[in-house]
Design a protein that fits this description.
Blueprint (H helix, E strand, L loop, with lengths): L4 E7 L3 H12 L6 E8 L5 H9 L5 E6 L6 H11 L4 E4 L5 E2 L3 H11 L3 E11 L5 E4 L16 E3 L1 H9 L11 E4 H6 L11 H10 L3 E13 L5 H12 L2 H16 L4 H27 L3 H13 L6 H8 L6
Parallel strand pairs: 1-2, 1-4, 2-3, 6-10
Antiparallel strand pairs: 4-9, 5-10, 6-7, 6-9, 8-10
Helix pairs in contact: 1-2, 5-7, 5-10, 7-9, 9-10, 10-11, 11-12
Length: 323
C-alpha cells in the first residue's frame, strides 16, 4: 500500500500560476495524497481558483489567512503541523512538476531508509511556461560532473562538498522529505526571511542522508515576483547580511554541539563565509558614511579567519563594491 504523502501548496498572490500548479499535483502517477492549500492573505483571485477545486476532490484541505504572515516559512510549518502523511512535498504555488515526480521521490525515500531528503534536478521555466534551461548551472561552479547522475550521499559529506558553499537545493518544489525528521530539527526558522530553506536542509543533513535524482522532474519558475528574484533584486543593498550572515551564524552555533573532525572542517568553511559577508557589509556602510562602524567590520573580515587584509585592499583600491 502506498504511503500517504502530504502535498503542501503555500500560496500568496500567484493566481496566474496556481491553477496549473494544482493540476500538475493532481496529475501525479502517485495517487495516495492529501493536498493542503494555504493562502497567505492573497489580494488577487487565488482564493476563487482554490475554491473551484474544492468541490470535486475530497483530498483537499484549505486554510486561508486573512492577513499575510510575512514569511513563506510560517506557511511551511503550518502545513507540516496539519499534515497526516509521513512524506511531505512543499509544492510552491508558482512551480510545476512532471507526472512521475512524486512517485520517483517517494521510491528514493522508501529504498533508502537513512535518507531524510530526496530531490531532483529542475528545469528553469519563465513566467510563460517556457523552459529556458536547467538549474544544473546553479551547481556547475562547485562540480560540473557530480549532478549528472543519481546519487545517495551521507549528509555530512554532501554539506562539506556542496551545501556549505551555497544552497544546492534551491527549490523546495523539487524536494520530498520525512515529516518526523523535519519536526525533529524544529521545522523551518521563521525569522530568516529568504534563507530558511537552506538552513532547514543543513540542519537535516547534519544527521541524515540525501538522495538526488539527476532527471529534471521539477519546473522551477523564475519570474519577477518570485522569492529568489526578489532576493537577488535587493541583495546589493544588504550585501549578504540578511541572506548569508544571519543564517550562517545560526549554523555556526549548531556546529559547536558536534565534536567530530569532519564537522569542524565544515565549521571552518562556514566561518570564512561569515566574515566575507561581514566584510562586504562593512564596505557598503563605510561608503554610505558610517565610516567607524564600517571600518571595524572591514578590519575584522580582513584578519579573520586568517590575516589577508583583503577587504582593506578592496576599500583602498576599488571604486565599486562587489556583492
Amino acid at each position: 500500500m502506498q504511503q500517504l504523502v502530504s502535498v503542501i501548496i503555500p500560496n500568496y498572490n500567484h493566481a496566474r500560476f496556481l491553477k496549473r500548479r494544482i493540476e500538475t499535483v493532481l496529475q501525479q502517477t502517485y495517487t495516495n495524497i492529501e493536498v493542503i492549500l494555504l493562502d497567505d492573505g492573497s489580494t488577487d483571485n487565488s482564493v476563487q481558483i482554490i475554491r473551484d477545486f474544492l468541490g470535486y476532490d475530497n483530498r483537499f484541505i484549505f486554510i486561508k489567512n486573512n492577513k499575510n504572515s510575512g514569511s513563506p516559512f510560517v506557511q511551511w510549518n503550518k502545513g507540516v503541523e496539519l499534515a497526516n502523511g509521513e512524506f511531505i512535498w512543499i509544492a510552491e504555488s508558482d512551480d510545476m512538476a512532471s507526472p512521475a515526480f512524486l512517485e520517483t521521490m517517494v521510491k528514493e525515500l522508501e529504498n533508502n531508509k537513512a535518507a531524510a531528503i530526496a530531490y531532483c534536478e529542475s528545469f528553469k521555466m519563465d513566467e510563460n511556461d517556457c523552459v529556458t534551461g536547467s538549474w544544473k548551472e546553479w551547481t556547475d561552479n562547485l562540480d560540473k560532473k557530480a549532478f549528472n547522475e543519481n546519487f545517495l550521499m551521507n549528509g555530512l559529506e554532501y554539506i562539506e562538498q556542496f551545501l556549505i558553499y551555497q544552497n544546492t537545493i534551491p527549490n523546495a518544489s523539487a524536494v520530498v522529505f520525512r515529516k518526523s525528521i523535519y519536526k525533529e530539527i524544529g521545522g523551518a526558522d521563521e525569522n530568516i526571511p529568504t534563507s530558511s530553506d537552506w538552513l532547514t536542509w543543513l540542519k537535516i543533513l547534519l544527521r541524515y542522508d540525501v538522495a538526488f535524482v539527476a532527471q529534471p522532474l521539477n519546473f522551477f519558475r523564475y519570474h519577477q515576483g518570485s522569492v529568489i528574484a526578489k532576493a537577488h533584486a535587493i541583495r546589493p543593498e544588504g550585501y549578504g547580511m540578511e541572506f548569508d550572515y544571519d543564517m550562517r551564524k545560526i549554523v555556526s552555533t549548531i556546529l559547536i554541539s558536534f565534536n567530530e573532525p569532519f564537522v569542524s572542517k565544515i565549521g571552518k568553511i562556514n566561518d570564512r563565509y561569515i566574515f566575507h559577508a561581514l566584510g562586504n557589509y562593512g564596505l557598503y556602510i563605510f561608503k554610505k558614511g558610517k565610516k567607524i562602524r564600517g571600518f571595524k567590520y572591514i578590519l575584522c573580515a580582513s584578519i579573520r579567519p586568517v590575516i589577508t587584509f583583503n577587504f582593506i585592499k578592496r576599500l583602498l583600491f576599488t571604486k565599486s563594491i562587489e556583492s
